[in-house]
Amino acid sequence: MSKRPKFVAGNWKMYTSRGVAKELAAAVAQGAPAGVQVAVFPPSVWLTTVADALAGSAVGLGAQNCHFEKEGAFTGELSPQMLLEAGCRYTLVGHSERRHGLGEIHDFLNKKAKAALAAGLHVIFCVGELLAEREANQTEAVLEKQLTDGLAGIPAEHLPNLVIAYEPVWAIGTGKVATPEQAQAAHAFIRRKFAALFGEKSASVLLILYGGSVKPENAADLLHQPDVDGALVGGASMKADSFLGIVRAAV
Length: 251
Ligand code: PGA
Fold this sequence. Notes:
This protein is an alpha/beta fold. It contains 11 helices and 8 strands.
């Protein structure tokens, strides 16, 4: 087992009402065991509500997206500085629903990751292949491109605040979880690639989360793989019981 801490993050996507967000955050804050980093990523409009519900707990708050500029004429966007002021410690960058649903690409995601890290946010940078890419044996090539382009130029001093989430697109929201062996193989590849980009030392402490149909029933097997340092959970993070079941599997 690695000495890296475990980290379990809940991505609420475009779900929850204000009342549900408040209750869910309070239940997670109350039930999260010590010894695992936990964070929740509510819709932006509920960030301050959830920040209040988490006050005094060790559970972190994150945004699902951020812009790379500090301010400006960017209708509908939020800057890293705004997210920090709303109480965020984290932001996701490059979730597949933004890459493939909204057409966000390498250079754009690279700017976001660099700006968020420079502002002082911790970034969970998401990568992962489509089913057709896996079937064509392109998984490693896709991950390599996403990492090389997406992380280009990140200064060494910001690497401690960077987390990678490996989320095979075919596993997100489909119930088709990657096998522990598939996850381990991809995570080990990501760590090797990260070492080539940033050095062995940074790679050895890098947290790599697995995401895609993680449930309390399959979490332990995934989380005990040597290069799997936690989980990024969508569907199962929207009920406190199932999310906390996954968090407990990481202890
Ligand atoms: P899922 O989503 O757990 O519902 O598959 C994961 C994610 O989108 O981060």
